[in-house]
Amino acid sequence: MSSQTSDGILPSLTHANVAPAQPGPNDVRDVGLLSERLRVLLVEDDEADAFLVRELLDEAGAKVELLVATSLGQARERMAGVDCVLLDLGLPDAQGLDGLRRLLSVADRAAVCVLTGIGDDHLGAAAVAEGAQDYLIKGQVDGVLLARALRYAVERKRADENARRLHDVEIQQQESARLQRGLLPQPLTRTDAFVVHPFYLPGRHSALLGGDFYDVVQTAPDRVALMVGDVCGHGVDEAALGVELRVAWRALVLAGVPDGTVLSAIEQVLISERRSPEIFATLAMTTVDLTMAQATVRLAGHPPPLLLDRGGVGAVRAAYGPLLGVFPDAQWPASTVPLEGDDWSLLLYTDGLIEGRSGVADRRLEVEGLCSLLMSEDGRRVPLPDLPAWLVGRAEEANDGPLADDVAMLVLSKDGRR
After folding, report:
1. Could you give the CA distance from residue 130 to residue 168 in angstroms, rounded to a whole number?
2. What's the chain's Rg over C-alpha atoms?
3. In the 3-class helix/strand/coil scheme, how is 140-152 assigned residue by residue?
4. C-alpha closest to that of 271 among 243, 245, 253, 300
5. Same domain for 402 and 313?
6. How far is Cα 394 from Cα 399, in angstroms, rounded to an integer?
7. Domain check: are 120 and 201 in the same one?
8. Could you read off the pLDDT of 120-176 as tens digits, one per residue?
């Protein structure tokens, strides 16, 4: 393309989708469209055409830093920090839509506008269909409209990116909702001999599910098994692994597998399904037998349940076992806890509840602080169904903000009273 017309006047480019605008008090400099300086990469092998584009932008007073590449290969090397690419479809190393496709594959967040010759409107429309933000026809657009076209292309690209990110978030939320049904099932109880109050709160990382899970299964009229667990980390992968562990636990309990071998089987599932050897899980498993008036507790690197009864509040005295997925041939000893009378409750929880600050110096809340909250005058008056939410509220108050980790809780009582 020649850089001058027969009468010596620089030609212009035509924007394919916007009518030419006359410079004046409402031109691009006055409406604020160039308030942000754009970094534009012109991919053009004709020096005269590149000179023309630069002159048009300068005459319009456009806030544009113009870079020039003479080939597609050179353009790929200069993409860093570019807001918009102005691409000629006739290059030494790329022709037509093939060059556009190759550029789009490396453009990342940069908008792309294409340059076409007069009479190639169909090619410009095809370029937009391939992913270009717009197309300009050589010889029929002035500087103001060129600057405006670049600005609008960048804004449309950003709008598209925001819409894509919003769609990704919606998909992730849908995945989390599906996983939640697997992590946090309805307690499987058949009688009113037990009352269970489950609770779950995602951590502040993304307000999405992490790896905390729980389950309750009644195995006989006077016997119930319950557990809470936590897969290290946050995200959909951890949540999916938590679902697998929770489902495996329920299947084993329903199949009547002895309590002493359930955790070993759960660990086998963890090891076979985790994505890396560094992934581990903690778990607290409790089996309550009303006939024997006792609870059997097994801890796999997990904080102990709390027993609430007329004698007060305290952590059950249970032997600690190792984390799941860390030590080969590990064993998890059982500890027996007497349940005297009818006015008792068990609280199982994940460590997200006690890892926040306690409000005293930089100390964490820990189990001792949790017991203190329950023993407080306000804590003793809270009804059981409201107790988990109340505890989280007090823990967040002491932490001076939302808890960083997920929190799962189960409150089990014989008759639902405090």
Report:
1. 22
2. 33
3. CCCHHHHHHHHHH
4. 245
5. yes
6. 8
7. no
8. 778 888 989 999 998 888 777 788 889 998 999 999 988 888 888 887 777 766 666
Q: Which amino acid is it at 343?
A: D
pLDDT category, 234, cuts 50, 70, 90?
A: confident
Query: Do the Cβ atoms of 107 and 81 come closer than 8 Å?
Result: no
Listed residue (305, 304, 317, 308) closest to 379, CA to CA: 308
Residue with tokens 């410009």: 124
Query: Domain limits at 239?
Result: 184-413
pLDDT reported for residue 173: 67
* C-alpha dihedral sign at 409, 291, 417, 379: negative
- Beta strand 281-289 with 320-321 is unpaired
- Decide: residue 5, CB within 10 A, 0-12 exposed, 13-18 middle, 19+ buried: exposed
Length of the chain: 418
Residues 205 and 132 in one domain: no
Query: For residues 35, 39, 45 and 51, what is the CA-based torsion angle, rounded to 10 degrees?
Result: 40
CATH code for the domain of 101: 3.40.50.2300
- Round to whole Å and give the CA distance between 251 and 178: 20
Q: Sorting pLDDT into bands at 50, 70 and 90, what band is 297?
A: very high
